[in-house]
Task: structure prediction
Amino acid sequence: MGKKLKPLEISVIIPIYNEEGNLAELHEKLSDVLASIAKSYEIVFIDDGSTDDSFRILKEINTEDRNVKVVRLRRNFGQSAALKAGFDYAKGDTIVTMDGDLQNQPEDIPSLLRKLDEGYDIVSGWRADRKDPFLTKKLPSKLSNWLASKITGVKLHDFGCTLKAFRQEAVKNLDLYGEMHRYIPALASWRGVSIAELKVKHRPRQHGQSKYGIGRLIRGMLDLVTVKFLLSYSARPLQLFGLPGIISFFAGFIIGAYLAVEKFLFDTSLADRPLLLLAVLLVFVGVQFIIMGLLGEMTARMYYQVPGKSVYTVKEIIE
Result:
C-alpha cells in the first residue's frame, strides 16, 4: 500500500488583478514567513482576469515553487468571486486570505494563526493604523464598519480588511458575490462560529493602482442590506414583508370601516374625503407586501432545493 499523504495544514489565498509590480516581493516575503511556521502550506493565487503581466509572472513563480497554485479566471469577476474560487480550490485545514498589493503584511500571519489556535473559527485583521487617505478611504470605511456592526450584530472594527484566518469548515460552501467578501465573518456567523479580531500592520501601496473607489463603497453598502436579509430572513421572508403588510391592510380596513359607517348611518358624502383614498392605498399596499412575502417564500424554497450557480468560470489551473 502507498504511504498516506499528510493533510495540508495552511492555504493562503490571494486574489490578483493587475498587480505585476508586487508579485515577486509578495511571494518572497510570504514564502519566508510560511517556511518559518514549519507547517505544510500552499499559496493559491487567483488571477481575476488581469490584463497586465500578472499571469506570466505567476506562471514563473509556479515553476520555481512547488507550493504555489495559480487559478486563472476567464475575466474579471471581482474580489468576492475570486475569494470564492480560492475557498473552492484550497486544500488546507486553515485558510488565510490577504490582498496582493503588499498593503497587508505576511509577517502578521503567524499572529493570526496563534489567535486561531486559541479556539476561534475566524480571526479578522484590524488595520488600526491604516495607511490610506482619510477623506476618501478611512472616513467612509469607519462609517461603513460602524453601520455593518450595527446591522449584522458582528462587532468588528474593520470588515474590509482582507487579511483573515479561517478554519476551513467556517468558510467552505459560503455563497459570495457582489461585494460580500467584506462581510464573510457576518455571513459565517449564522453557523455559530466564534470570531476574534487582531490588530495588523498596514503600509501604503508601493506599486499599481488601488481598485477601490466610491462606487465599490456604494455597492458594498447595498450588499450590506442583502447580508442583513440573508442573516435574518432568508429562510422566512414572509416575516419580513408580512408584518408591514398586515399592519397596512388592517389600518386601511379600519379606516374603510369607519368611512362606511359614516356613509350608511349618517349619509356623509365621501366623494371629497382624502381619507377614502388613504384607506384604499393602505389596503392595496398591504396586499402587495403579503404577496411579496409569499413570492419570497417560494424563491427561498427553490434556493434551498436547487444547487447554486457558480459566480465564476475557470480558464486554467497551474499546480
Notes: The radius of gyration is 25 Å. The chain has a mean pLDDT of 85.
